């Protein structure tokens, strides 16, 4: 039953916020968590350059900090990349893996997404695997097959007891065009039916905002949200993590 699964509300800041902005954000966000529901995990996935500031500012708070990507090699000649060991040493406990923007703009494939998931887990980091279909795939009636194939390829060898999945239909990301909550619930149920571990938290992502979070979170299969644009203001994200059902 859904009540046993962890609820995870994650902000994905993408390429936003300097260190000074990170400190100011967290200072004004923290007071909103004084009555946070105990079953809810709140997470901010910040740019690599903000990790130290974010970890310091959230110490002694319920907020966890995540990265937005992770490389699969332990070390080596990979200019511009960051390894799992570098992140875990800092105290980073989560990392987004396979976000559609990484797949679309930076050439990530299901094969490299799988390697990143394995590397994260080997370092004790919980990856948030993003899957989701494009508008063209949806219009062609191939959403289910697309998602199932992504899961098949991405999850090879992955430990499902240390995993979060985000269902993010690409056409709903940053567009204001939220997926119908019932439809998101249906696809998330499909994702769960393909897992061996039934307690994996499965989030919805794509234009989640204060005005629609209550409806989204009232769906039984949906265990949280991955929030881009609406996580950039402390007040807006506070309303999201304190959603009411
Ligand atoms: P959005 O982004 O909330 O701005 O649509 C979600 C995401 O890309 O994770």
**DSSP helix fraction:** 25-40%
Q: Helix-strand pattern, N to C?
A: EHEHEHEHHEHHEHEHEH
Instruction: Indicate the radius of gyration in whole angstroms.
Output: 17 Å
Low-confidence stretches: none
**Distinct ligand kinds:** 2-phosphoglycolic acid
- Strand order, largest beta sheet: 1-2-3-4-5-6-7-8
The number of distinct helices, counting runs of at least 4 residues, comes to 10
Give the biggest sheet. 8 strands, parallel, barrel
The assigned structural class equals alpha/beta
The chain-level mean pLDDT equals 96
Instruction: Estimate what percentage of residues fall within beta strands.
Output: 15-25%
Distance between the termini: 17 Å
Shape: globular
Quantity of strands, as a count: 8
Key structural traits:
binds 2-phosphoglycolic acid; eight-stranded parallel beta barrel; 245 residues
Structure, explained:
The chain is α/β, with parallel strands linked by helices and 245 residues long. Helix 1 packs parallel to helix 2 and helix 1 (19-29) crosses helix 10 (234-241). 42% of the residues are buried. The two termini are 17 Å apart. It has helices at 19-29, 51-58, 84-90, 100-105, 110-122, 135-139, 143-154, 181-193, 213-217, 234-241; strands at 7-12, 40-45, 63-67, 94-97, 126-131, 164-167, 202-205, 224-227. The model has no long low-confidence stretch (mean pLDDT 96). The chain has an 8-stranded parallel β-barrel, surrounded by 5 helices. It is built from 10 helices and 8 strands. The structure holds 2-phosphoglycolic acid.
Task: Please give a quick description of this structure.
By secondary structure, this protein is α/β, with parallel strands linked by helices.
């Amino acid at each position: 039953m859904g009540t046993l699964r962890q609820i995870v509300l994650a902000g994905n800041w993408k390429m936003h916020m300097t260190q000074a902005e990170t400190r100011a954000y967290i200072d004004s966000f923290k007071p909103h968590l004084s009555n946070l529901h105990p079953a809810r995990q709140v997470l901010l996935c910040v740019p690599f350059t903000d990790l130290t500031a974010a970890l310091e500012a959230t110490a002694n708070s319920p907020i966890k900090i995540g990265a937005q990507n992770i490389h699969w090699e332990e070390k080596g000649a990979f200019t511009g990349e960051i390894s799992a060991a570098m992140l875990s040493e800092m105290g980073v406990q989560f990392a987004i893996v396979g976000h559609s923007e990484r797949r679309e703009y930076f050439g990530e494939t299901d094969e490299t997404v799988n390697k990143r998931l394995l590397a994260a887990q080997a370092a004790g980091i919980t990856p948030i695997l993003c899957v989701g279909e494009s508008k063209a795939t949806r219009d062609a009636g191939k959403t289910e097959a697309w998602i199932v194939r992504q899961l098949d390829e991405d999850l090879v060898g992955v430990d499902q007891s240390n995993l979060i999945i985000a269902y993010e239909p690409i056409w709903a990301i940053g567009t204001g065009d939220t997926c119908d909550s019932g439809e998101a619930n249906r696809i998330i149920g499909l994702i769960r039916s393909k897992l061996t571990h039934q307690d994996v938290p499965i989030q919805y992502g794509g234009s989640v905002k204060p005005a629609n979070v209550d409806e989204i979170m009232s769906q039984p299969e949906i265990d949280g949200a991955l929030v881009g644009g609406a996580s950039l203001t402390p007040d807006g994200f506070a309303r999201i993590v304190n959603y009411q059902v």
